[in-house]
Amino acid sequence: MRFVITGEWSRNSLLRLVLFMFLVYVALFWASSAMLYFSRMSLDPASVVTYYLGDVGMEFGQPPRPYGSLVETSHMHLFAMGMLVMVLTHLLLFVPIAPRWKGTLVLTAFLTTLAHELSAWLVRFVHPAFAWLKVGAFLAMETSLLLLIVLLFAYTVRPGRNAYKDEA
After folding, report:
1. b/e per residue 114-143 (b: at least 16 CB within 10 A)
2. 133 three-state secondary structure
3. CB 152 within 8 Å of CB 19
4. In angstroms, what CA-CA distances link 121 with 3, 13, 131, 132?
């Protein structure tokens, strides 16, 4: 962190390479996250309802997602996504954009990833209408993560002033 705070990272090509490669992995994670979502559901809320509540009318019948499966998924996702969003938004603090945009993007990234995870529980155990939240949260989460990735890629490739040291 010292390199980012002091502005040394803009002059340290090896440090920028490390961050660039991290962002390559994050971009691949972002893409595989979408592929995983679309391998199970679509943007049609009915597909979300079918995935979580099951469909006994199908040829082999699809049971509802079990409680234990949701717990296992949430256990990993809440930690992993929380860490990912924390790292990306923390790095965003050093990008020279308006503080209100940073704040908006930080809140959006955290809230949409949380809504995406919690909406599965709401669909399964509260009401199928929460499928709309699942779809909307997925789209908003993917969009906010993409914005973070693009901004950080741009600043890594072409660093500018150190926003952390700017007088605001």
Report:
1. bbbbbbbbbbbeeebebbebbbbbbebbbe
2. helix
3. yes
4. 41, 44, 10, 13
Domain ranges of the chain: 2-157
The upper half-sphere exposure of residue 37, i.e. CA atoms within 13 Å in the direction of its Cβ, equals 22
Q: Tell me: the pLDDT tens digits for 71-121?
A: 999 999 999 999 999 999 999 988 888 999 999 999 999 999 999 999 999
The DSSP output letter for 165 is: T
Could you count the other beta carbons within 10 Å of the beta carbon of residue 152? 22
- The pTM score is 0.84
Q: What is the DSSP letter of 98?
A: -
Residue 12 DSSP symbol? -
Partnered with residue 62 across adjacent β-strands are 55
CA atoms of 113 and 123, how far apart (whole Å) = 16
Sign (positive or negative) of CA dihedral 83, 85, 88, 91: negative
Gap between the Cα atoms of 88 and 106, Å rounded: 9
- Report residue 121 as tokens: 């529980």
Alpha-carbon Rg for the chain in angstroms: 19
